[in-house]
Amino acid sequence: MEQVQLFTKISYLPAELKTQINDFVDFLLSKRKKEEKKKQPKYGCAKGQIYMSPDFDEPIEDFKEYM
Q1: Residue 1's pLDDT band (boundaries 50, 70, 90)?
Q2: Which tens digit of pLDDT belongs to each residue from 15-45?
Q3: Which domain does 45 fall in, by range?
Q4: What pLDDT shows up at residue 61?
Q5: Are 27 and 20 in contact (CB under 8 A)?
Q6: How many domains does the chain fold into?
Q7: For position 10, what pLDDT does the model report?
Q8: For residue 63, is it within any domain?
Q9: Mean pLDDT of 37-62
Q10: Is the distance from CB of 3 to CB of 14 less than 8 angstroms?
Q11: What is the DSSP annotation of the chain?
């Protein structure tokens, strides 16, 4: 839709509806800003924050009777 057509349609509306349109446009703009702020985590960003014990792959003693 052309901007001129949109402006023409809006200009025919009463003032109450124009304020609703203004509020809706503000809502859409704020929603878009929130979506832009969401960033994907970069690969390796948690490096050094996770610790795995050296005996991680060892069998668990509680399950010895099942094995």
Answers
A1: low
A2: 999 999 999 999 999 988 877 666 778 888 8
A3: 3-55
A4: 82
A5: no
A6: 1
A7: 92
A8: no
A9: 82
A10: no
A11: --HHHHHHHHHTS-HHHHHHHHHHHHHHHHHHHHHHH--PPPTTTTTTT----TTTTSPPGGGGGG-
Residue 20 within any structural domain of the chain: yes
Residue 11: count of CB within 10 angstroms of its CB? 8
> Is residue 61 left, alpha or beta, with left meaning phi > 0 and alpha meaning psi from -120 to 50?
alpha
Q: pLDDT > 70: what percent of the chain? A: 93
Is residue 19 situated within a structural domain? yes
| Cβ–Cβ under 8 Å, residues 59 and 67 | yes
**Is 50 among the domain residues?**
yes
CA–CA gap between residue 67 and residue 11 (Å, rounded): 79
